[in-house]
């Protein structure tokens, strides 16, 4: 086996969302029990995995659904002894501002006939297109289980799907699907509404995130019982990481004399807790938050060459939870009691003030439970905060409304140039993977990769980084 250097004394992780906490978990696995791991978090553990309470029950307001083939998330749930709840099915409709252009039926066979009648076999072809991409995407688990790491997001994607995967970053989903022969009607009425509910954007997002978004409309989606953020607190605990509640302000490289008496290059992390400023020194840093002024506001001081400024614009989205009785007549002429849709998606129509609205279950239930008067909790995604007039238009009556604003995910604008993972010698950036696609599993994959990369670079194992033709090489291994 390859020779190992003494492990680092101290590692800092900035951000305790799913990216930061899974990085702590994998770094502990790689570097062993003696390294001190500090996680800096200025808000809540969980980050964009968060819940809000409506009349005593908690509901997801950020990252909510997990794909059945998201193997890191599945593994965390198993290792941490958590339970899952299955995504409730329910019927979906698509509203274009005037009428429902597509409406699911509770009869499976009627649905199939409807889909074929309206769109031919495009729905089936779309399913196969996504499945093919997912199939290649799954190669990452094999690479990571053999400890291989990548120094750029582009190298990682190339190892999974070659030039086709990189090409998807450079073209819009619409262009990609048009080339594949999908009709404008199908793109407008089925694909665009899925992009709006999942990423609050149009079909002009890059093809890769488009495919992830379509996977997010697959069946079998699940969530963590009690809230997805339980994974983050669980990983933090399992990794024996030390949580520091504070906001990191700057990082600077300095030469320090270690306890052994030898001088070493270390990173100073300066952070604020309340009105006090503190600082500490680290051998390795993993940045697990999007690096831009609005989101993390971290300055890199005196680096030579300087660390580039990141300007990725993040999409503003509002999640509103409302317990009430929907005024279904604005979507359909069907009598109030006969309206049976539980999700309404919308087409790309700038006159619409919502992206989607759907009935949700609390974090402890498999199925949504109405109150005695038949009111459900509805989750609405919108580009702006809903006004009282808009809420009154949507609901015949409502008891309660709460909202959460997000800079949710990158505003995708292909061609995408992904930020470097290696920002400096021992300074790693995990959130750059969101340029390809933002999802819980993407952050977990980036975290595993960053931990492997940090470990191999620390030990000089360059043969474990950016290996080409990995798929072919590993095919022959047992
Ligand atoms: C409304 C919404 C719905 C979504 N739905 C889904 C979904 O259904 N499925 C899915 O897979 N994904 C979904 N996502 C995406 C998913 O939530 C994110 O991709 C994922 O949670 C990102 O995790 P992260 O740890 O990389 O980043 P974050 O969760 O953003 O974590 C970064 C952390 O760093 C902290 N931080 C920032 N700056 C500093 C600083 N200077 N000092 C200290 N701490 C700092 C922040 O407070 C934050 O907690 C959704 C996102 C949103 C917003
Ligand atoms: C990373 C891979 C291969 C799959 C992830 C698929 C997935 C779960 C995508 C969802 C991404 C996302 C940002 C969803 C936001 S909204 C979620 C849900 N539709 C809701 O209404 O709350």
Automatic annotation (TrEMBL):
Stored Pfam families: NAD_binding_8, Prenylcys_lyase
The protein's enzyme class: oxidoreductase
Catalytic activity: an S-polyprenyl-L-cysteine + O2 + H2O = a polyprenal + L-cysteine + H2O2; S-(2E,6E)-farnesyl-L-cysteine + O2 + H2O = (2E,6E)-farnesal + L-cysteine + H2O2; [(2E,6E,10E)-geranylgeranyl]-L-cysteine + O2 + H2O = (2E,6E,10E)-geranylgeranial + L-cysteine + H2O2
Gene Ontology CC, one term: lysosome
GO biological process: prenylated protein catabolic process; prenylcysteine catabolic process
Coiled-coil residue spans: none
UniProt xrefs under InterPro entries: FAD/NAD-bd_sf, Prenylcys_lyase, Prenylcysteine_Oxase1
Keywords per UniProt: FAD, Flavoprotein, Glycoprotein, Lysosome, Oxidoreductase, Signal
EC number of the protein: 1.8.3.5
Single GO MF descriptor: prenylcysteine oxidase activity
SUPFAM superfamilies listed in its UniProt record: FAD/NAD(P)-binding domain
Record keyword Glycoprotein present: yes
Cofactors required: FAD
Similarity remark: Belongs to the prenylcysteine oxidase family.
UniProt protein name: Prenylcysteine oxidase 1
Natural source organism: Pteropus alecto (Black flying fox)
